[in-house]
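protien #1 (seq + structre)
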Amino acid sequence: MTSNLVPDLSDTSIAVIGLGYVGLPLAVAFGKRRRVVGFDIDSRRIRQLREAFDATRECTPEELREAKHLNFTTDPDELRNCNIFIVTVPTPIDANKQPDLSALLSATEQVGKVLSRGAIVVYESTVYPGATEEDCVPVLERTSGLNFNSDFYVGYSPERANPGDRQHRLSDIVKVTSGSTSEVADFVDRLYQEVVPAGTHKAPSIKIAEAAKVIENTQRDLNIALVNELAIIFNRLGIDTEAVLEAAGTKWNFMPFRPGLVGGHCIGVDPYYLTQKAQSIGYHPEIILAGRRVNDGMGAYVASQLIKMMLRRRIHVEGSNVLVMGLSFKENCPDLRNTRVLDIINELRDYNANVEVFDPWADPEVAKNEYGLALVSQPQKSTYDAIVLAVGHEQFKIAGASEIRSWGRDQHVLYDLKSVLHPDESDLRL
């Protein structure tokens, strides 16, 4: 590689491909100081952003207006004058829990069509180790007609977004960076330093950076799986799990994980990327997949506990009205990606229960399009045979047990999955 092909930091034009929870904050941060083209295929999303409205609530209208050098578009031709491409599209799993790289490869093909000599393509999407160079680079070469590491280069800087978290944002979290050559790695690292005051960590290779990303959330997944299994054991023993965790938490090195549903764009997905890659090289992971089985089964477990309590109270499950409070994968966040609340809903519907869902954070249009669910705008008084407090939104904490109970019939069951209420105020806790 010759150094004159690598862009100078003073002469960069950035394109951010995918303007979701990861891409938009990044585009806004760079757009305050550099020319940035924010590209997304969702025309509704682009219209909203042009009006300084972010449906994900990650960026305020003021932050969007401050990014004076940022332009939003759905037109791929507007990417042609860019020499830095940052790809931040989703990498979910399919129905068989296999990595789905379709959006990533589609975005890569789009970038390849406008790629010019000396350009750098940086990936932030979660992938298994090797995907950037083994899956994406060949697409870039094929669509651009250019040669890797002589005509164009790649980097990988895994996203560490935490939707809904106002304390740990892009600027506050150390950014892992990497590049396909040492010179490109230096360039990518310096570029991100401009928008990440918390600092950067330059990994020795792209594969190491990719692996670091997937194990971050695999570790959290396993820790939550352990606590979920403990909750099942303690429930059978008639012991309050939250009280046990509070007592154990008095030791300085006890890790404060809590039981619950594990969904979202990372923790419930990333382990499958690592296990798929492991299996492709002949190794069958035991611990990682065991943790996944426990966490994937929690929705059915919650539904079974609720049904048992309803039957003990002689409440007919078939034809019953059940209110599920919360649909997003975590509290105080509209993100519905890979929400495992859906597992509870589907399980209850298998018993012919009538399930209504209330979530003041979720976008009703997204809920309808993604899951076929029509959210209720406000629960009705004295209506429900069972209520599941599935997500710990602030609005639910403010409402309190008295108001929540008022939505139930004289005889009903209240399951506080997230320990939002005092132990004496609910009938069941996880």
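ok now protien #2
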Amino acid sequence: MFRLLLLLTVVTLAAGAKLQLRTLPRLDRRIVGGKPVKIEEYPYQVSLQSDGSHICGGSIIGPTKVLTAAHCTSGPYASSLSIRHSSTYRGVKGVVIMISNIVRNPDYGPITASHDVSVLTLSEPIKDSDIAKPIVLVETNATEGDREAVCTGLGARLSGGFTLHLQAVDVKEVDRKACNVSYNGRITDTMICFASPGKDSCQGDSGGPLVVGDKQVRIVSWGRGCARPDYPGVYAHVAPLRTFIDENL
């Protein structure tokens, strides 16, 4: 899982040189202000793992397909990655399946976090059950504005050595223009923002799903800080990314 990165950029000016501190997207998103839930309530949720350790969230979108964030797959080779599904807990129970192929959006930008989506192919199909089902993706022409959503994730921290529990948090859509102002113009067409008081900037594990009704509309992507009311959580916008996703199903 990626951490908040700080980049010192040297900018040369006519009058001399000075240092500018540039904050890159926080690519380590965790549920804040949520509640524990069971996998039966959100059977599309999976844990993306590297060498058996949780690194990101993801969602089942087909028998052999999982959707996650591109930044979650920017380092590891497919041979080291697997998913754990059908489990309320991170790291135990459920079923582990290896990943055979990763297709990361070719337009993904690690600095801007634009087009932050990857489609994973599993080495064997997931058996459909009450605790493992694909989520339907939002339509390409879905209307933006004033939507309420639920975000799920397995990224809460260990406490006293106990196994982590699946979390869910309710958030509301933030006006695109207002969010763009908060982030100084960094919100692209493939991003959208959601937040709620005390929950508005760390809504879930990177790569995990944000769902409106019964359809996934976003992928947890990035943000600045944690639970800061002036910086909403930023999500990869599934609707304009559907062409890439559909081509790799």
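The radius of gyration is 18 Å.
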